[in-house]
Amino acid sequence: MNISGIIVGLGNPGKEYDNTRHNLGFMVVDHLLNDAQRFSPDACSPLSIGKKKYDAWKCKIGSKSGFWLVIKPMTYMNLSGEAVGHAAKYFDIAAEQVVVLHDELDLPLGRMKFKIGGGHAGHNGLRSIEQHLGTRNFNRMRLGIGKPEHGSVSNYVLNRFTKTEATDVEMVLEGARKGIEAFVTSGFDEAVKITNAFKLP
Fold first, then answer.
1. Which residues are catalytic?
2. Per-block mean pLDDT, blocks of 10 residues, the chain (201 long)
3. Which residues are documented as binding site for tRNA?
4. What is the 3-state secondary structure (H, E, C) of 71-116?
5. Which of 25, 86, 90, 131 is the most interior residue, by most CB within 10 Å?
6. Does some domain include residue 201?
7. List of E strands, the chain
8. Which CATH number does the domain housing residue 66 bear?
9. Closest of 100, 98, 129 to residue 112, by C-alpha
10. Number of domains into which the chain is organized
11. Does residue 141 lie within any of the structural domains?
């Protein structure tokens, strides 16, 4: 099977984690899949691989030919690398063709940044992926969720987005989708341009 690269949304499986800040990567993947299938029912096909480490789809994204593997790790956040490492090895995908979508405390909700490499800044999902890929040189889409004004970070990231944030989150999901499409169709520089310029109205 010809796969051009891997798009990974980070999060935790289970309904108790739906719509939480730590699951913003999952939410972007869901939006990407829904959008692709809205325009073409055959754009994304589920795949039975991964030994239950991840849910996977083979997707055609944007106008460029070729398919991308879109995955949601089912290993829980701290073991995300098990899923990404397995998928990369299975399809012989280099780290430079992996895009990880993850929540980012150091950016406010409504901002996002596209980059390659760098540290994990305490994000256990990124730490695990670095360990299993054996490199930091994979692409990351940093999706801002902001920091709590008070209380623990661990509680904050596992809290759901509020009703007042719902409209902003929907715009973030669409902005992230456009950034992914830019990467797939035009490459890293265009993805940086589109993603980093995103702002809420």
1. 22
2. 94 97 98 90 91 94 87 97 97 97 97 96 93 98 95 95 97 98 96 98 93
3. 17, 76, 78, 124
4. EEECCCHHHHHHHHHHHHHHHCCCHHHEEEEEEECCCCCCCEEEEE
5. 25
6. no
7. 3-9, 44-47, 54-59, 67-73, 98-104, 112-116, 139-144
8. 3.40.50.1470
9. 100
10. 1
11. yes
The Cα 164–Cα 57 span in angstroms is: 32
Name the token pair of 177.
């989708």
* DSSP state at residue 160: B
Residue 124 lies inside a defined structural domain of this protein:
yes
Q: Are the CB atoms for 74 and 9 separated by under 8 Å?
A: no
Smallest CA-to-CA distance from 92 within 200, 4, 199 is with: 4
In sequence order, what are the residues at sequence separation of 6 or more whose Cβ sits closer than 8 angstroms to the Cβ of residue 129? 8, 80, 81, 84, 85, 100, 138
Does some domain include residue 143?
yes
